[in-house]
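[Automated response] Your request has been received and processed.

Submitted sequence:
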Amino acid sequence: MENYVANVIPHLLQWWPVIITLAYLVGVAFTVVAAVQAVSQKHRFSRSTAMWSFVAAVLLLNLPALMDSLSMTVFNQSSEQSLSYSPPSSPGSVYIQFAVYGIMTVGAIGIARGICLMRDTPNQAMNMSRGIVHLFGGILAVNIISFLRGIGATVGGDVQSYIAKIIG
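Generated structure:
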């Protein structure tokens, strides 16, 4: 199987920037469609479609990290570095980078959910506190790298060096 991948990569190399750009554009389109479906009052049963659109958007917006983590999982080897934007410093950093991007995307979804809940506050008074919690959690998740570095700088010592090893 390793031979097939090695044979395909040189042919894909010239098209890789175009593929990445198209994946980003389609990912943004999926994000917009999912956001419209999630806040739409007309289509109450389109929430699952919105969720799957968000999942597709996350995967498309993180295509280089997804390709690296799939290569590490399926073939148990690092991918060709010519196809990725940032080469991983260690084998596990691919998974950490993908997880951080996923957490940041979920944070953006949390911020949108919090704003939507706060928008519906006149109808249900309970939504205000739920919206604030979603908004606060989303902001924390979007800024997860700064938050972890702040914890490391506050605690210092082994915690700071461990966090620096994890997130770089």
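Summary generated for your ticket: Confidence is low (pLDDT under 50) at residues 81-85. The CA atoms of residues 77 and 164 lie 24 Å apart.
If you did not submit this request, please reply to this message.
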